[in-house]
Design a protein that fits this description.
The complex is a heterotetramer of chains A (about 325), B (about 200), C (about 800) and D (about 230). Chain C is of the alpha/beta class. Chain C is about 20% helix and about 15% strand. Chain D has one domain (about 20-90, about 110-220): Up-down Bundle (Fumarate Reductase Cytochrome B subunit). A two-stranded antiparallel ribbon of chain D has the order 1-2. Chain D is elongated. Chain D starts with a helix and ends in a 10-residue tail after the last helix. Classes of the chains: A alpha+beta (about 325), B alpha+beta (about 200), C alpha/beta (about 800), D mainly alpha (about 230). Chains in contact: A-B, A-C, A-D, B-C, B-D. Chain B: This is Molybdopterin oxidoreductase.
Chain lengths: ~325, ~200, ~800, ~230
């Protein structure tokens, strides 16, 4: 309920028409992750686990710094480390990216979700999973262009970063952004974050990163979690950040207008059948048919040859 | 009437209720439903805040501890969350991965709760009272000090030292603890005395 | 730290060498990022590993562990050879112009005065030439071959870029780039700051590493200015406080020294502590030593410390040798100690050569641990399979494990790296029966006192007369103790120039150490803390965030020693005439009548510039020392020595391999490994996900970095057939550990003196207690060798071997 | 009524001319399949379109629907497999079937006299049979892939997306096919009893499957039992 009071709903999963969010303030929020400032300390992971009371399993070392090794139902954010040899400078660069929900303007998860209200997008841009409505079908996983949602084996609910909607609702920033020691994670209005990013890009360019830029992919309508990248021309070097993410055409086909067409086809078939019945009438067996059959049976029983039936039906 | 009835039945079985529900598919269903999604209520709204300093490194970040309980007589306070202090001039609300998880330090499973004692040669700890532990420690100290205290060195200079018992102090304790520790240790004549400062 | 954390934002160049600030001090490191983002500052990282600090650097240069002095010497040589020094600063504020005794010299890796049997120097030749007036001789032209400047030039000439590359394995072009970036800060309007930590201290020549950089900072004119300075990023939350309070074998609170056997009475003790100025008119603030000392004695023994008994001088134990931890455990291992207390300390997983530590603890009669958490030390007698292979039945040590409070449950002050004393408050009660450390110490003391009163015994006086003025003697409060640290007047303290004027009335808290007396009329447990808890209240609890001039000082937040000064030597932020070197970064300057500015001047507030009083008021010469005289045991200039375990010879002085004055015992010398058996250089360090062995008890941190590992280069992994994430065994001449292998591009083999040297990185956060997977600590491998000056063990450079193994340890 | 009476009086035996078409095993099998298919349709459509989400109420809510739908699928596959084993031989295509398809206009009009004599199944039924077999196989395979609870991660997310698309598209086709099948059963009077009582009247068989009737009457069945 509080979502209606403080963070009006812009989109709601599996709901064709959401009531207009008349209380919208028009303020869209965004988290800006400046990869060039990030020291990979995992304070964001720690703060996320603590704020959301998540208990992740203690894992093992598999030869990398990434722990846990992937996002999980309990780890909604994760530092991903990539050692990249820069062919231009000959230097190795250690690229560290905080992975997690991008809070797309056009969220694939929401599009794919079949459960009404299990995924909502508030007018401020936050995409939130509402567990009580979640049915655990994992369609959101298929819908997401960034491979973010994870289904809990315990309660079969889907989980991901909420952008701390509970904190934002009372005027605070997300826990990760607050904790981030180097201000590599900033939080504010999307326009402010874009301006901030522009300044950062300028600074990076002055330091020789000619391709520095903001990652706010248009393919998903822009995101409410954006990255400042030193090599924005090659997002994939940051542990496989998609180059041009968009909702898969397969998902669009699956979840698009074809759905109504399909239902229409079913309805048409049913209605068509009804009218066929009305027009043609039932296909009834006539008494003649019965007699013909009876004759046939009789003849067979009598052992006489079977003439061709002659009676009309 | 019978024909009418059978038509309906036909629709239900053949069309699996499509006709009725295609209407729903046009979007009249969701709008009527009470939308019950809820943002998790902000969980620090009614907690008691206490200022502290992160006990780990020497940046000494300011932290705010959020406690259950309003300090009234009959409620026992309990920590539920710890976060950076936005006023603090150094950390300005930020915390590192250790500081951000301080709550789990306070509440660690391996926090010690009772004095334990291990007998010589034993392979286990046993729980003892504070009085037992403190009496025994003081006795062992005194016996060792009386046996090994050096009042004068071989040149006859008063040295008043006790070097057979040593003390490692903790550089995460407060200055006040350190002050009291220093007084107790030095007044006994101990010289084997150190802390993490040169490790 | 000479400056504050926030002041780092004012710098133009951050050099992180001998540390890994981003990982070990992330929230302090934010100010580096601020400087980069808002000032366009550059960050340079010099480290054997490409660390997380390096990941945000503008320039990274690799270096072989334990060769920092060669690198820094190379920079000094570069600055001097290219005349990239801040001349005015160097001339006026350092001892560059001071003439050194002609007998001083350097030959074949040794300074004059070495005594091999003592492993130490007679430092008498390492001093100034004194004139007949008793003052040091100087040559303002810096041309005299015996002046410090010329001696420096000569001493560091050997550290050419080629030599740096040969010793450190740092490619010449990269070294030159770093040197060039540093040299740009020799103008008065560009500053550089140095962030370092245990990457410099944990060497057999740790103190000299730091001196190397301090000298560079002096040559560049960067000490005492905003955005400059030497930032020792200290490890623990109150390690600064415990150092200030002298919880070390040889210290009295406030950096006074414990007396030694040679100082049989107070007169003898004070005779070497006169601190007569070495140049005319200098402040030489240590001349007040006796006031600090007497006030300390009064706080210890109150009325029982009086002029008649030399202020109870005899009750202080006298040192015959320094009882640092290496000595303590050596004594213990040799059966010469019976009891040991570990208050929040885990030596089993801390001190070098774990095998020796276990042996030492096993020989104790009793061990007392006081800790909020389980420690490996308190269970050193418990068998944990390969992780702690001991036979409990053979260990006769009585062990007491006392549960204490943690930060959330206690009240008091901690001193951060920039010397701020910050007060904190408790939120909850300790769990179970756990007690505050103060109560435990009081309880032990009261029992001991009662026994001495009842039974008598050896010298009961210092115990039974210990000043114990607490309202509840059983449990002194933090506030009472804080007031005691600060000190108060025991009698009315009057103005020396006007005896009718009472500065502090009897019984009142002191405002500053300037009010201290050597006649017993004041007491102060720690003179540098005087002012922290005055009559106007607890200054450490102040929470005013204002920051005039956005200088990064926050002068009304908490309280900094000394006298709430935020940047040390801040007088040096202005030139000899008192004008700021950089008008855009004013700090303390001459206003025409007095010294003003944003900070409390580190200087007599009304000393006029033309009086030529040096800004380094604690030194008798009033200037900073490029030549350290006899203050360092291992030389007045830093000089390259190899680590005690090193893959190569010392190319500077082939006969002297390791620091000739470093602490090492005979048995431990034998335990050193050689490069034929142990060809790889190992170094130990922290990871950002953990804090020592504490956070392995913390669920979240166990999740973030769950299991012990070592880091090696892809080349070494290939050579040894080691898989990423596979098990390896790493062993030294002292022990062996098993770990997962992190194979990385971030460590690369270095070409040292023509041959490749591989580095094995070993983080230090695991043990056999807690939430993480069980693991080992590098101390199973490290040598029992300590720095020459402060005995810090050499954890940062030693030799190991490595091999792939099929499976992990058996618990 | 009058006609019935008249008929009864003229040919008392006619009403009793019944031909067995499906024995009990086949009928149970069919209805298990039919019910499962219906449940799958309902639960599937509930998750297919939000407008039908209310159908989840029949399955214990959204999570219940999500959980049980694939199990219905498993039952359907097994049940349909049994049907398949019984019926596949009767569903081979022949020339008559082609002719039947050519005369689909007559079929739709109910004018069967000009159609070739048909064996047990007409071409429409055969098409339904084979298509349904194909659809169920596809639905099962794609369903398995998107059955996240047990088969998470066995294919890539992109393959998963394809599977979901194919699953829903085929499901719609299958439902359309079902409508045809059910309507045919309703339209062609006398058909339903074959699956309820197991037999048809002789007249029904004469009218719709005369070749089958003849063989039945001869008692000789080249392919074994006529009962499926």
């Amino acid at each position: 309920m509080s979502s209606y009071q403080s963070l009006d709903i812009k989109r709601r999963s599996a709901t064709e028409f959401t009531p207009p969010a008349i209380r919208s303030t028009g303020l869209e929020v965004a988290k800006l992750i400046d990869v060039s400032k990030c020291i990979g300390c995992k304070a964001c992971q720690s703060a996320c686990l603590e704020w959301n009371n998540l208990k992740e399993d203690v894992g093992v070392n598999v030869g990398v710094y990434d722990n846990p090794h992937d996002l999980t139902p309990h780890s909604w954010t994760l530092m991903r480390f990539s050692e990249w040899d820069n062919p231009d400078t000959g230097n190795m660069e250690w690229l560290i990216r905080k992975d997690g929900c991008m809070h797309c303007e056009d969220p694939g998860c929401l599009k794919a979700c079949p459960a009404p209200g299990a995924i909502v997008q508030y007018t401020n841009g936050i995409v939130d999973f509402i567990s009580e409505n979640c049915i655990g079908c994992a369609y959101c996983v298929k819908g997401c262009p960034f491979n973010i949602p994870r289904i809990s084996a315990v309660d079969r609910k889907s989980y991901k970063c909420t952008l701390c909607s509970d904190r934002v609702a009372v005027g605070q920033g997300p826990a990760c952004a607050k904790a981030c020691p180097t201000a590599a994670i900033m939080f504010g209005s999307k326009t402010d974050m874009q301006e901030q990013a522009a300044r950062r890009v300028e600074d990076l360019k002055s330091r020789g990163y000619a391709n520095a830029g903001l990652y706010d992919p248009a393919g998903v309508g822009g995101t409410h979690v954006m990255y400042v990248l030193h090599h924005a021309d090659k997002p994939e070097i940051y542990h496989g950040l998609p180059n041009d993410p968009k909702i898969s055409p397969l998902v669009n086909a699956w979840k698009g207008g074809a759905k109504l067409l399909a239902l229409g086809a079913i309805a048409f078939a049913a209605v068509g059948a009804f009218f066929h019945h009305t027009v043609v009438g039932p296909n009834k067996v006539s008494p003649t048919d019965e007699e013909n059959a009876a004759d046939l049976v009789e003849e067979a029983e009598n052992g006489s040859p079977q003439p061709e039936p002659t009676r009309a039906g | 009437m019978i024909g009418e009835f059978s038509r309906r039945q036909f629709l239900r079985t053949a069309g699996a209720g499509i006709a009725g529900t295609t209407l729903g598919a046009m979007g009249f269903g969701g709008a009527e439903q009470a939308l019950a999604q809820a943002v998790r209520p902000f969980r620090l709204a009614q907690t008691t805040e206490t200022r502290n300093t992160c006990p780990y490194c020497s940046v000494a970040c300011g932290i705010i501890m959020y406690g259950l309980g309003d300090r009234s007589r009959n409620t026992q306070a309990s920590l539920i969350h710890i976060e950076g202090d936005p006023d603090h001039p150094v950390n300005r609300g930020t915390l590192c991965p250790k500081g951000a998880a301080l709550l789990d330090f306070v509440k660690a499973d391996t926090r010690l709760k009772h004095p334990m004692y291990r007998k010589p040669g034993s392979d286990k700890f046993e729980r003892v009272t504070w009085d037992f532990a403190l009496d025994r420690i003081a006795r062992l100290m005194k016996d060792d000090r009386d046996a090994n205290f050096i009042e004068k060195n071989k040149d006859g200079v008063t040295v008043n030292r006790w070097t057979t018992t040593g003390f490692l102090a903790a550089s995460a304790t407060t200055n006040e603890t350190a002050t009291l520790t220093y007084k107790v240790v030095r007044s006994a004549g101990m010289l084997v005395f150190d802390n993490q400062a040169r490790v | 730290m000479t400056n504050t954390w926030q002041d780092i934002k004012n710098t133009d160049l951050v050099v992180v060498m001998g540390g890994n600030a981003a990982e070990a001090h992330p929230c302090g490191f934010k100010w580096v990022i601020e400087a980069k983002a808002n000032r366009g500052a550059k960050l340079v990282v010099v480290d054997p590993r490409y660390t997380r600090t390096a990941s945000v650097s503008d320039f990274y240069c690799p270096i072989r562990p334990g060769t920092d002095i060669a690198f820094l010497g190379g920079v000094i040589n570069y600055l001097l050879a290219n005349d990239k020094i801040q001349h005015e600063y160097v001339k006026a504020f350092t001892n560059a112009s001071y003439l050194i005794k002609p007998e001083f010299g350097w030959n074949e890796g040794l300074f004059t005065g070495y005594d091999e049997t003592k492993r130490g120097y007679d430092t008498s030749s390492w001093d100034y030439q004194l004139g007949e007036d008793g003052f040091a001789k100087i040559d303002d032209t810096l041309q005299d071959p015996q002046c410090v400047y010329q001696l420096m030039k000569k001493h560091f000439a050997v550290y050419t870029p080629e030599m740096v590359e040969r010793i450190c394995g740092s490619p010449k072009d990269k070294f030159l780039k770093v040197a060039e970036m540093m040299s740009e800060c020799s103008t008065p309007t560009k500053t550089m700051t140095s962030l370092y930590a245990l990457g410099w201290t944990q060497h057999s020549k740790g103190a000299q590493n730091i001196r190397g950089m301090a000298m560079i900072q002096l040559l560049l004119g960067n000490i005492g200015v905003r955005g400059g300075g030497m930032q020792a990023l200290r490890g623990h939350s109150n390690i600064q406080g415990l150092t200030d309070l002298g919880l070390m074998s040889n210290l009295i609170p406030g950096y006074l020294n414990m007396p030694t056997d040679k100082e049989k009475d107070l007169g003898a003790y004070m005779s070497t502590r006169g601190f007569k100025p070495l140049r005319p008119g200098q402040t030489s603030y240590w001349q007040n030593y006796k006031k600090f000392f007497v006030s300390f004695q009064k706080s210890m023994w109150g009325d029982a410390a009086k002029v008649e008994n030399d202020w109870a001088y005899d009750w202080l134990p006298k040192l015959d040798v320094t009882y640092d931890v290496l000595r303590a455990f050596d004594l213990m291992a040799n059966g010469k100690m019976n009891g040991y207390f570990c208050q929040g300390f885990n030596p089993l997983m801390t001190f070098p050569d774990r095998g020796k530590i276990t042996k030492a603890l096993s020989k104790l009669k009793f061990l007392v641990t006081m800790d909020p958490l389980e420690t490996e030390t308190s269970r050193f007698w418990e068998n944990h399979g390969e992780y702690n292979e001991v036979k409990s039945a053979d260990i006769q040590t009585e062990v007491f494990q006392l549960p204490t409070s943690c930060f959330a449950e206690d009240e008091g002050s901690l001193v951060n790296s920039s010397r701020w004393l910050q007060w904190h408050w408790p939120a909850v009660k300790p769990p179970g029966e756990a007690k505050l450390d103060t109560e435990i110490m009081a309880q032990i003391y009261l029992r001991l006192k009662a026994m001495y009163q009842e039974e008598g015994g050896k010298l009961p006086d210092p115990i039974v007369n210990l000043r114990w003025p607490y309202a509840n003697p059983e449990d002194p409060t933090p506030e009472e103790l804080a007031k005691e640290m600060n000190g108060a007047a025991l009698a009315d303290v009057t103005d020396p120039t006007d005896p009718t004027k009472i500065l502090v009335a009897k019984g009142k808290q002191l405002d500053t150490f300037a009010q201290l007396k050597d006649d017993g009329s004041t007491f102060s447990f720690c003179w540098i803390y005087a002012g922290c808890f005055t009559e106007s209240g607890n200054q450490m609890a102040r929470r005013d965030v204002s920051d005039p001039g956005d200088a990064g000082l926050a002068p009304k937040w908490a309280w900094a020693w000394p006298v709430n000064r935020r940047i040390l030597y801040n007088r040096a932020s202005s030139d000899v005439n008192g004008k700021p070197w950089d008008p855009s970064r004013k700090l303390v300057y001459w206003t025409g009548e007095k010294w003003g500015g944003f900070d409390v001047p580190d200087y007599g507030p009304t000393i006029r510039p033309e009086q030529s009083v040096g800004p380094f008021i604690m030194n008798p010469e009033g200037v900073a020392r490029l030549f350290s005289r006899g203050m360092m045991r291992d030389g007045p200039f830093p000089s390259h020595y190899e680590p005690f375990e090193s893959p190569v010879a010392n190319v500077i002085a082939p006969k002297i391999r390791g620091n000739p004055a470093a602490r090492i015992f005979k048995d431990d010398l034998v335990a050193l490994g050689t490069p034929d058996k142990y060809p790889y250089v190992a170094t130990s360090y922290r990871l950002t996900e953990h804090f020592h062995q504490w956070t392995k008890h913390v669920w979240v941190n166990a999740v973030l970095q769950p299991e012990f590992f070592v880091e090696i280069s892809e080349q070494l992994a290939k050579e040894k057939g080691i898989d990423k994430g596979g098990w390896v065994r790493v062993w030294s001449n002292r022990g062996s550990v098993k770990a997962k292998a992190v194979v990385t591009k971030r460590i690369k083999p270095l070409m040292v003196d023509g041959k490749p040297v591989h580095v094995v990185g070993i983080p230090q956060h695991w043990g056999f207690m807690g939430k993480t997977k069980k693991g080992f600590h590098p101390n199973s491998l490290t040598p029992f060798v300590g720095d020459a000056n402060i005995e810090t063990p050499e954890y940062k450079a030693f030799l190991v071997n490595i091999e792939a193994i099929a499976s992990g340890p058996v618990a | 009524m009058a006609i019935d009476v008249e008929r009864t009086s003229v040919r008392p035996l006619v009403e009793h001319t019944v031909i067995d078409r499906y024995h009990a095993k086949a009928r149970v099998n069919h209805w298990v399949t039919a019910i499962t298919f219906t449940l799958l349709t309902l639960s599937g459509l509930a998750l297919f379109h939000p407008g039908l989400y209310w159908l989840t109420a029949f399955f214990g809510g959204g999570s219940g629907t999500r959980a049980i739908h694939p199990w219905f699928g498993v039952v359907l596959l097994m049940s349909f497999s049994l049907l398949f084993i019984q019926f596949w031989k009767h569903n081979f295509w022949n020339r008559d079937d082609t002719q039947w398809v050519k005369q689909i206009d007559d079929v739709v009009k109910g004018d069967e006299e000009h159609l070739p004599e048909l064996d047990k199944y007409n071409a429409g039924q055969k098409i339904v049979f084979w298509l349904m077999a194909l659809f169920i196989l596809i639905l099962f395979c794609t369903g398995l892939v998107i059955w996240d609870q047990y088969f998470h991660g066995i294919v890539t997310i992109e393959t998963n997306r394809l599977a979901a698309l194919v699953h829903s598209a085929i499901a719609i086709c299958a439902i359309l096919l079902l409508i045809v099948h059910v309507y045919a059963g309703i339209w062609v009077k006398g058909s339903v009893r074959s699956m309820t009582q197991g037999n048809v009247t002789g007249g029904w068989a004469w009218r719709h499957h005369r070749k089958w009737l003849r063989r039945e009457v001869r008692g000789a069945e080249p392919g074994g039992s006529t009962e499926g």
